[in-house]
Amino acid sequence: MSAKMIRAMLRTIEDECRFTGGLTGRYTLRQQIFDAMATVRREEFVPDELKPYAYDNNPLPIGNGQTISQPFIVALMTDLLEPEPDDTILEIGTGSGYQAAVLSQLVRQVYSLEIIPELARQAARRLRRLGYDRVEVIASDGSSGLPEHAPYDGIIVTAAPPRIPAALIEQLAPFGRLVIPVGEPHLPQDLLLVEKSGKKITSRSILSVAFVPFTGRMEE
Question: Which residue among 2, 69, 203, 208 is the active-site one?
Answer without folding.
Answer: 69
